[in-house]
User: What shape does this take?
Amino acid sequence: MPALIEAVGLTRHYPAGDGVVAALQDVTLSIAPGAFVAAMGPSGSGKSTFLNIVGCLDRPTRGTYRLVGEDTASLSPDRLAELRSRRLGFVFQSFNLLPRVDALANVELPMIYRGLPRRARRDRAADALALVGLADRMHHRPTQLSGGQQQRVAIARALVNGPDLLLADEPTGALDSRTGLEIMALFQALNRAGVAVLMVTHDPDVADFAARTLRFRDGRLVSDKVHAPRDAALALSEMRQEQAA
Amino acid sequence: MNLEVRPKVAAVDAPVTESPRRVLPPLPPTRPGMDLIEALRGALGALAANKLRAMLTALGIFIGVAAVIATVAVGAGARDQVLRQIQALGANVIVVWGGSVNMGGVRLGAGQRQNLTWDDARAIEGEIGAVQAASGNIRSSQQVIAGNQNWATSVQGSDPEIFAVHDWAAERGRLFTPEEAAGGRKVALLGATVAEMLFGDADPVGQEIRIRTTPFEVIGVLARKGQNAQGQDLDDAVFIPFWTARRSIMGASRTWFRSVNWIAVRVHEGEDMRAAEEELRTLFRQRHRVAANEADTVSIRNMAEVAATRDASARTLSTLLAAVAAVSLLVGGIGVMNIMLVSVTERTREIGLRLAVGARRRDILRQFLLEAVLLALLGGAAGVAAGIGLSHLLSGLAGWPVLIQWDAVALAVGVSGLTGLFFGFWPARRAARLDPIQALRTE
Assistant: This one.
């Protein structure tokens, strides 16, 4: 089975003023299917550029990137879109839900571009919402939901096309610590069920919930450690006991 | 945390197994891409979210289309009227009226001078080769009585040539003969309206009517001719031979026994109307001994020319209004483009998200294009409704003849859709070409 992610000498230059900025330099790594990886680093370290390339939203200036064995360098924007649709699910810091429609329609969105018929879409969106614990909030609009609930809708949306990899950009950045723990517990549960997660964060406590941490600085991968993940569900119940006491 | 779900969904708390599994059952294979119904739903939703803005944007196209529909209806109505007029009076007809009377500086207008005679009509027929037939006519308003019914109508004394001049035929009975005309026989032909008023459904042929106190035999009813350009009912008239009229109805007290009100002339098919008109003018200048430096003593009107002039002015008006409509559509189109650009800018983040979750460029292009077309079409459809309403209003209030042209309606709707397509393309392309990373970063 090919690696989920195979990056060799990944480099990304941006034109800036007279010269170029090297947002990412010579990053080589591989991520196995079903992994839970955190990418850390200060802003401008290249972790977001790495996420964008992995997410097929950007292409490397040099080096090769393979997603489940498929080289993205030669693909057209529309082929990249199809790849995103099939393989990837995105979760953002600010949720990025469509404000005009309810949770169900938000979760339906990725399936629209898959060409799935309406009935099948609605059933599956309902299942995905149930999966993230929002079975009773399907017809709420984003403004009628709390931050944590909105992020769950976003996670349901990311899951609904059956992706191999969930890409999360500071998923707890806009949430309080308890809600953040709940989201981490959800990620861990999904990961146990087989979905790989790549999560960008600047918070070391959040990175602890992953099983592997990548550290970026000045566009370079400076450390790559595998470690035992902290159990988010456990941390959550501890926090509840603390608050009760 | 409750992660329990319906049975068909794999539980996420299940232990890790060798092969990676999905938290949801695998998707059935599908052809990627947004279907049209979904795109339409999205476009409608986006328009509904900004109702006022959508309405204001569609206003330009609305006005343009309404103007086109109303303009074409008025133009077609005018043309139709002219056609009917020509049909009613006959093409190739020239009408000669008496000249104007100048009484101490007050000019009384054409036909006031009693300087045309029955002999002029005969001279026209005899001396101008291009003329097929000519009829002298007098007319006055009279009360006509039949049995216990009576009706005020116009009684016209004419030569039998009048029917050939105007292409009039008897629907029932017959026309009067040259012998009846020369003999001053008391025979009458009824217009369809008069026949209806006096006899209802009964057949008037062979019945007796009285004009003033004089009894006449009805020998026929003329085929229906409709209204003339002034809205006058051409069928509300009784036709009797000229000499009968002179002797029995309108003759006795007149100074000029042989004078006529007007002469109707028919020119042979294929002859030059202008040349015929010129010959008529020359003839009258000779007969009335008009000096070279003096004005004509008669007024000559070429019906075809009058019709053509009217048609031309209607066409000019139509062209002018069509130009206004085109400009309005252009401005409306630019409005659509403007608002679509605003919409793309406002929804940059949404576009970024859609691209991230798997929308292809063409999906985004289609969505925004559809939105622009829909916006323009809604304006167009409302414009059609308003245009038809305006047409009816014009015909009702101003009394203009209007005729809704359905092909113009279809064309207007089509053109408004195309306007949306044309002016929506650039904004939609701009949306489709957005860089998803930049778009997602937009606040």
Summary: Chain B touches chain A through 51 residues (CB under 8 Å). The first helix of chain B runs from residue 36 to 49. Residues 227 and 233 of chain B are 5 Å apart (CA to CA).
